Amino acid sequence: MENQLRILLTEEGADAERAAWLARCLREELLRLDVDDVTALPADEEVPPGARAVDITQIGALLVSLGTSATALRQVAAALQAWWGRCRESRPSIRLTLDEDVLELSEASPEQVTEAFDLFVRRHSPSEAAP
């Protein structure tokens, strides 16, 4: 079974042009990695129950096919961390889903982001999993 990582990006106050540009830039970066594919997914039409729909634009959803590479997830996590770090003005929120595991980042320090990505990758790295 192929590992697929779903990435959902949101940003408060983003207009459609900026949203499309950010998603496109991230997708292009991820395609340079040792992954099988990165597919742009359509934005969700409905707002989930209980979610606030005020001033938040879904930048996009990407589906990353990790394939069988042992380092693909680590590479994607590093690329996402670098991308998030370059978004200093807006700091988009990131939601990663792999299997049933979810990582959500919105307002966090660079150190917290590093720790969260490291933990997420370790949970999905067979060689580093606890016996």
Please name the defining characteristics of this protein.
alpha+beta; 3 helices; single chain; 131 residues; 5-stranded antiparallel β-sheet
Write down how many β-strands occur, each being a DSSP E stretch of 2 or more residues: 5
Instruction: Based on Cα principal axes, name the global outline.
Output: globular
In sequence order, what are the helices and strands, one letter per element?
EHEEHEEH
Subunit arrangement of the protein: single chain
- Report the helical percentage: 25-40%
Average predicted local confidence, pLDDT:
80
What is the structural class?
A: alpha+beta
Query: How far is the N terminus from the C terminus?
Result: 22 Å
Description:
This protein has 3 helices and 5 strands, in the order E-H-E-E-H-E-E-H. With 131 residues, it is of the alpha+beta class. It has a 5-stranded antiparallel sheet with strand order 2-3-1-4-5. Helix 2 runs antiparallel to helix 3. The longest helix has 16 residues. It is globular, with a radius of gyration of 15 Å. About 5% of the residues have low confidence.
